[in-house]
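Workshop exercise sheet. Pairs work together: one partner reads the sequence aloud, the other fills in the structure field after running the prediction. Swap roles for the next sheet.
Pair: D.N. / O.F.
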Amino acid sequence: MEISSDQRRELHKCARTGQPVYVRTKALALVNVAEGRSVEEVARIFRVSRWSVYVWQRRYLREGLDGLRVHAGRGRKGRANLQELVEHVRQSPRRYGVPFTRWTLAKLAQVVPSLKGFTPFGVQKALVRAGFHYKRGQPGLHSPDPLYEVKKGLWTRR
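Structure field:
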């Protein structure tokens, strides 16, 4: 692989400090190829296929360091319909026939159609992707008494 001295410096720097870590690995592999090691030897050292090293080489020469990153849209697409999940989470479980006041991961997996068959951990991951974060429920105290707020203030003041 023929690269300029600037590209060599760029790869060396990326091999030391590149983020995420897989970019450092690819940069280090390309540094080795640029320094004269064979693609077969580099593939064996890094425990990847020769094809992977060739792809990294081609993408680096075409796109620079950005070519070493995993592009968005790669990988398996999530099965959970996040919009559907948001609609269910923002409603009371009782609206869907669940006799509880709060959602559990297992109950969401039973009620939300796109989450059928998910484990509780899978539901949690879908919730995080939808922008929700775990927060323990707090008990609510409410009274129909019109003077409730005034009375409550008497015993909550310090």
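Discussion prompt: The two ends are 74 Å apart (CA to CA). What would you look at next?
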